[in-house]
Amino acid sequence: MTKYFGFTLLRKHGLARRGIVHTGRGDIRTPAFMPVGTVGTVKGLYLNQVKETGADIILGNTYHLMLRPGAEQVAKLGGLHKFIGWEGPILTDSGGFQIMSLSKIRKIKETGATFQSHIDGRKFELTPERAMEIQRLLGSDIQMQLDQCLEFPHSEKDAEKAMELSLRWAARSREAFGSQPGRGNFGIVQGGTNERLRLKSADGLRQIGFEGYAIGGLAVGEGQKLMLQTIEFTAPALPEDHPRYLMGVGTPEDLLESVARGIDMFDCVMPTRSGRHGQAFTRFGRINLRNAKHADDPRPLDAEHSCPALSQYSRAYLHHLMRSGELLGMMLLSWANIAYYQSLMQGIRDAIDAGTFEDFRAATHEQWKRGDVAA
Fold first, then answer.
1. Domain shared by 339 and 246, yes or no
2. Which of 268, 296, 331 delimits the end of a domain?
């Protein structure tokens, strides 16, 4: 394990960026999609499958791992990497999203958030300092500041209040992160869809200074148009020589369009969650395997893809598995979706390298629009 954390920007095509995030546990090729392993598992997949799809990094969740099995327990067992059997980099979020989603059982004050466990009702307090302590105990390679995220819609007053609190928590998170060679600490830009607030947040985070910068508080109900507009005025306010991470996003189209606006890193539960409900993402667009029209279709999802889940199982069989409620169907579609997301990111990286990103972007949209004509 090396002691260096940094970012190399290799090439740009328009606003799209090709780079490498260097961590103590290895490099992350960007643009990158990070599969979500909330409680130490990417649902439905073995971690060697995740690696074979081309993923350089996975995500873990501070809130959920704090509740079960506990950060101290994970540390006692050798850290999160050893505990789950993943040798590459891991990013842990700070619990800020759960502070939002658990709004009925939590209270927010200057010191932090207090809430009841959704598992057994026990009371917990999550402060910026405790969030960073948990992430250090887990041993993650990228550690996020604690922030306050708001659901959409919200008032400008509430957005400003949450943004200012997040900035104060950012300073405390940064101090608590301390010195961890080979690991990075990312600040999170908040401010809803308001340009003034987003720019103020970005400026405040730059003054504190982080190894990377994330855009949080999007994909929370505002819709794709507003999300992309917010990225357009936020991303340029972030340092050119640091990675830019759009949290919790999204569909393949979201990823492609956000890369076109200067984003480097993404995470989302969508590929595995959708897979568990019978929806596949492919270069032909979305395919709902629960639909009766697939019952007699002998073709795989994508005969040309290297992932067995996409190329070796018929749509008829996948339809049968999903309609029968079989776990294998959920596992295969989750695998297929993660594989497609990774091949999409590889295609984006190759296109930026070749200076053909806009051609790739247009061709990808056209293929999604055209779909699988024979279906």
1. no
2. 268
The answer, yes or no, to whether residue 375 has pLDDT greater than 60, is no
Q: Are residues 50 and 167 in the same domain?
A: yes
Are 112 and 239 found together in one domain? yes
Q: Which residues of 183-216 are buried (b: 16+ CB within 10 A; e: fewer)?
A: bbbbbbbbbbbbeebbbbbbebbbebebbbbbbb
Whether residue 267 lies in the annotated active site: yes
Q: Are residues 150 and 179 in the same domain?
A: yes
In tens, the pLDDT along 104-142 reads 667 899 999 988 877 888 888 999 999 999 999 999 999
Alpha-carbon torsion angle 162, 168, 169, 174, nearest 10: 140
Among 264, 267, 297, 302, the active-site one is 267
In whole angstroms, give the CA distance from residue 32 to residue 34.
6
pLDDT tens for 155-175 read: 999 999 999 999 999 999 999
In a domain, residue 101? The reply is yes
Distance CA 184, CA 264 (A): 15
Final residue before a domain boundary, out of 268, 303, 337? 268
Q: What is the mean pLDDT of residues 2-25?
A: 96
- Do the domain assignments include residue 72? yes
Catalytic, out of 93, 141, 297, 302: 93
pTM (predicted TM-score): 0.97
Q: How many H-runs (helices) and E-runs (strands) does the chain carry?
A: 15, 16
